[in-house]
Amino acid sequence: MSPAEWNGADVPPEERYPAATPSGWPTRLAGYAKLIATAITTLGTTGILQWLQSAGMTSLPAWAVAGITAVVGLLTVLFSPKNKA
User: Residue-wise over 19-55: b if at least 16 C-beta within 10 A, else e?
Assistant: First the structure.
């Protein structure tokens, strides 16, 4: 066997590397992420904090409240309807 045969140089690339069937998991994961982000923006900061309180969270550090507020605000801006003039 020659080195060209070892590397498959005589075989066309489409036969050497057959096309893989797409799994669709990236699309599914993106759909779940968008659903979760939409739910978070629908609840808003107050809703998230009340939900945490009803789940037994009695107090949060100031940085956690600020982080929740920032994340909800960012998601609201990213997923809000676009103004088109």
Answer: eeeeeeeeeeeeeeeeeebeebbeeebeebbeeeeee
pTM above 0.85, yes or no: no
CA angle 22, 23, 27 (to 5 degrees): 100
Rounded to 5 degrees, φ, ψ at 23 are: -90, -30
Instruction: List the alpha helices (DSSP H) in the chain.
Output: 3-6, 13-16, 25-54, 62-79
pLDDT digit string (tens) for 1-49? 555 555 556 666 666 666 666 677 888 888 898 899 888 888 999 999 9
37 within 8 A of 30, measured Cβ to Cβ: no
Contact (Cβ atoms closer than 8 angstroms) between residue 41 and residue 79? yes
**Mean pLDDT over residues 48-71, rounded?**
93
The structure tokens listed for 40 are 């978070």
What is the DSSP code (8-state) at residue 17? S
